[in-house]
Amino acid sequence: MHHNSHLSLTDVPMGQRVRIRQLNSQPDFCMRLREMGFCENAVVRCVSKGSGTIICEVCNTRIGLNQLVASSIVVSSFE
After folding, report:
1. Do residues 2 and 8 lie in contact, with contact meaning Cβ atoms separated by under 8 Å?
2. How far apart are CA 54 and CA 11, in angstroms?
3. What total number of domains does the chain contain?
4. Is 41 part of any domain?
5. Is residue 50, in this structure, part of any structural domain at all?
6. What is the largest CA-CA distance in the chain?
7. Domain extent at residue 17
8. What is the pLDDT of residues 25-42, one digit of tens each?
9. Which of these, 2, 17, 53, 74, has the minimum number of CB atoms within 10 Å of its CB?
10. Which residues make Cβ contacts (< 8 Å) with residue 17, sequence separation at least 6?
């Protein structure tokens, strides 16, 4: 992953830590994501991927997201 490249959460390899840059969804849904810890500048780790679901670890909690939701979360490499 290139430094400062902007990807969606769906592009993140398993085990990789990234920083959330932007949420591209409906305002009420973005608010819900932020309540779960998926807020701008939060660090997220992709734990596993499979059958349309991505399991991420954010704020010491594992949360499963579907591909559509994950594709709306813009991330960049975490240094």
Report:
1. no
2. 10
3. 1
4. yes
5. yes
6. 31
7. 6-77
8. 999 999 999 999 999 999
9. 2
10. 43, 44, 45, 78
What single-letter amino acid sits at 63? I
**What would the DSSP string read from start to end of 5-73?**
-EEEGGGPPTT-EEEEEEE-S-HHHHHHHHHTT--TT-EEEEEEEETTEEEEEETTEEEEEEHHHHHTE
Tell me, what's the pLDDT at 64?
Answer: 96
For residues 74 and 58, give the distance between their C-alpha atoms in angstroms, rounded to a whole number.
15
The residue type at 66: N
Cα gap 70→79, rounded to integer Å = 21
With contact defined as beta carbons under 8 Å apart, do 69 and 47 qualify?
no
The one-letter amino acid at 60: N
Q: Note whether residue 1 is domain-resident.
A: no
pLDDT at 6: 76
What is the spatial distance between Cα 3 and Cα 25, in angstroms, rounded to a whole number?
A: 25
| Cα distance between residue 6 and residue 29, in whole Å | 21
